[in-house]
Write a structure and sequence with these properties.
The protein has 242 residues and is of the alpha/beta class. It contains 10 helices and 8 strands. The protein starts with a strand and ends with a strand.
Length: 242
């Protein structure tokens, strides 16, 4: 893959470049200022832009703007945004389109080399990836003055598990493997989730993720946060075994 990295920390930029280069990927550029990205992307046409939400010059949300601009100017370029903590206010903007080739991770997952490479490969081929903690933050959000019941309260514990894994971009087969159940069982739970949340089902993983995200971002009413399993700590920190 050909990649462009946009990150304010020189240490993290260098670390990401090292890990990606070590795995045979081509780094077309590594910058800290969003203002230079349009020219860089136009020149090198990377497969994926990897960008922090916060970039120079103001260190607020330039990364989001750069990602949206990249998608508009270069539809074939995937974008992977990351931030130090969940910033769900950016999700609606980032996933307003079809969501294909878009990802959003929390920064500590960027230091897991295997997970980062897997995510980049998924985004580069048109997949959608969302850190489950971002979904959890959306689920925990409330609208001022709302007295409606929790939207996700209608789901069973098993359906919540399926919903959280769907939001990670997992297929029914992958969900079945993770939960150690049959694929038929997962299909029934997926259908039940869509029915209970009044969201039309779709065989597309991207649309499944978008349906979940849009429902949570647009409604913004009290819901019960999904429970996410803690993964085994197999982290490899920027090229070194942790």
């Amino acid at each position: 893959m050909r990649l462009v990295i946009a990150e304010g920390s020189a240490v993290l930029r260098a670390g990401l470049a090292h890990v990606l280069g070590e795995r045979g990927h081509q780094l077309a550029g590594a910058v800290h200022d969003a203002r230079v990205l349009p020219a860089l992307l136009a020149t090198h046409r990377p497969d994926v832009l990897v960008a922090n939400v916060r970039l120079a010059p103001t260190w607020t949300d330039e990364g989001v703007g750069a990602a949206l601009d990249a998608r508009r100017r270069h539809p074939g370029t995937g974008v992977l945004l990351f931030s130090a903590s969940p910033e769900p206010q950016h999700v609606a903007r980032l996933f307003a389109g079809d969501g294909a080739g878009v990802g959003y991770l929390i920064q500590d997952r960027m230091t897991d080399a295997e997970e980062l490479l897997d995510t980049l490969g998924h985004v580069a081929t048109g997949g959608t990836v969302v850190d489950p903690r971002v979904v959890g933050s959306l689920a925990a959000g409330t609208a001022s003055g709302s007295d409606q019941e929790g939207v996700l309260d209608v789901l069973s514990e098993r359906e919540l598990e399926v919903l959280s894994l769907m939001a990670q971009g997992r297929t029914n087969s992958a969900i079945a493997d993770r939960l150690i159940v049959s694929q038929g069982t997962v299909e029934k739970r997926v259908a039940s989730v869509f029915e209970k949340l009044h969201i039309p089902g779709s065989p597309s993983d991207n649309r499944r993720v978008l349906a979940v995200l849009r429902y949570l971002t647009e409604r913004r009413i009290p819901v019960r946060p999904a429970r996410f399993e803690r993964r085994p700590d197999r982290r490899r920190v920027l090229g070194r075994a942790a």
